[in-house]
Amino acid sequence: MTLWNTPIFDVGSSEWVDVIQRLPLSDKQKRILIATKAAGFTNKEYQEINKVDRDTAYREIHEMVEKGFVVHKGRGRGAKYYVVLPERIDIELFTERFPILRDILSRRKTISNAEYREKFGLSRHEAYRELKRIMEEGYLTLEGKGRGANYKASHRLFPEG
Q1: Which helix (H) or strand (E) is 71 found in, with range?
Q2: Most buried among 15, 86, 135, 158, by the most CB within 10 A?
Q3: How far apart are CA 141 and CA 60, in angstroms?
């Protein structure tokens, strides 16, 4: 895959490109995520990079938002879209668990290690390691200690809110 005439490996780190390539998205959706990474993008930029019309860009961006890979700040013509994938978390966590975690935390305030491991069938230590990695990326904050600890969404997980 290329960014039209630019090979993708010239655009981002090989680790980032590998992560994006494995996501369940179209080539056009992957192209914008690789091209813009943390800088975010607008509908207009999506149109220009992918050579599509405004309505197609809107539909394809909206699909990424629904899947939990992109969030938006602003509305209408002023909307800007940002990748919410942490760069160093493994692919399974990115593609399967991270969007579900976002959905859970969009409906409730916190999640505990016990709830996380029950939801994803993980051991206590596996859940702790994943939650810690997500927290280190800035998507969660820790409230409390020990068995009373809960993880709360940070502003980075839901930047539009």
Answers
A1: strand 70-73
A2: 86
A3: 31
